[in-house]
Inverse folding.
């Protein structure tokens, strides 16, 4: 037992004895007397320790294994397109941010009604996507088995990045499942 554990146990024992002494004092004192009030006060001193005892008991409970890491695109291999879509990027509210979408990987959620599906797409090197114009892009889903049925040909959706809808889209073609 460490020094801190010993001190904590000693404090709990002392406060328990004080509470028991307060109970005896309260029991034998006449009602309405100062001695009875002091006995009540001594009994109440035990209350803060109850929380510590409960926390100690909770700490002794066996713990579950930590949850598995959520799936992410980092764990996947190369880009495997699942859907060809047409995206029309919205104009931003601030004119100075009205810049074309540059080359690189973009991760988002494709939202159909009130359901969102994690997805990513790439803009090839040397290309820029102008806002306000439709662009055909290939999209990969994080969970294609769940998302594919929600995107038949012609399904309209919105593209969510962070807390902003940045584009509106339409499903053009679903690619065959590669096993």
């Amino acid at each position: 037992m460490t020094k801190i554990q010993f001190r904590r146990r000693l404090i709990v024992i002392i406060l328990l004895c004080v509470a028991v002494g307060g109970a005896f004092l309260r029991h034998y004192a006449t009602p309405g007397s100062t001695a009875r009030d002091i006995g009540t006060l001594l009994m109440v001193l035990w209350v803060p320790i109850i929380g510590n005892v409960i926390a100690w008991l909770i700490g002794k409970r066996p713990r579950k294994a930590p949850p598995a890491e959520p799936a992410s695109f980092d764990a996947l291999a190369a880009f495997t397109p699942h859907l060809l879509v047409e995206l029309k990027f919205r104009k931003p509210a601030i004119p100075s941010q009205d810049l074309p979408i540059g080359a690189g990987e973009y991760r988002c959620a494709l939202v159909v009604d009130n359901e969102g599906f994690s997805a990513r797409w790439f803009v090839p090197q040397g290309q820029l996507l102008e806002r306000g114009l439709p662009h055909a892009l290939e999209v990969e889903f994080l969970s294609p088995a769940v998302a594919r049925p929600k995107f038949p040909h012609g399904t309209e959706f919105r593209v969510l990045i962070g807390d902003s809808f940045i584009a509106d889209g339409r499903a053009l073609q679903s690619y065959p499942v590669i096993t």
